[in-house]
């Protein structure tokens, strides 16, 4: 009884929102061929055997490593999985195959005119990487999985970016791409498509907005430059104050500073050098 309960619970877990599992959907989609169907299949097999070896060229099919073949027998899918890679047989009169490429496909999202949350019109484009995860679902559930994914990527880009303001759009591209990937992957799961990566390529702003942002950035840089210059003047004045206090404590330091100044002036290529008269030489005469 416990084993039966566990098996029943596992079946309920595999069932979807409507109470139907994927196995039930596949069996319902494939179905039985019926008496007439089996008669046609047996007749096709007999004709294939009778007309050997001419029918071998129509019965043998080869798919590559990156491909899978979905077989339709009288319009139904007889197996629950696709064929390949390698060689397999089909009945030429009753079977038809659809080859599905499993390699990763990339496509560009055309530039989309999008109105952001703060009412700014921008042009955004991107690139999407996806691959077929379930060949049977990509053939049986959607007419053109590639085209449907392209259209869905455009609408998803508009919906996601419509909820972002301009600052988030310019600074959080990785988060926007991740959100788009999750939305696309969830929407294309029933089509057998796995979205592997989404990237935002370019964000084009209106020219007036570009000029306004450039003027704002320039004003911000000028303000920072003025603040840095003011801080430098303040530090220089503090250093001069400390130097004056040191020189006031030692009168000989003033003479050394005077000699350093003369050395600096002599190093420059000046036509005329004026030597100031030290006040120490005039001190005896001032006292008299």
Automatic annotation (TrEMBL):
Limits of the Band domain: 58-217
Localization per Swiss-Prot or TrEMBL: Membrane
Pfam families for this protein: Band_7
Cleaved signal peptide residues: none
Transmembrane segments: 36-60
GO CC terms: plasma membrane
Main localization (coarse): membrane
Stretches the record annotates as Disordered: 1-23
Family annotation (PROSITE patterns): BAND_7
InterPro entries (alphabetical): Band-7_stomatin-like, Band_7, Band_7/SPFH_dom_sf, Band_7/stomatin-like_CS, Stomatin_HflK_fam
Sorted UniProt keywords: Membrane, Transmembrane, Transmembrane helix
Record protein name field: Band 7 domain-containing protein
Family stated for the protein in its record: Belongs to the band 7/mec-2 family.
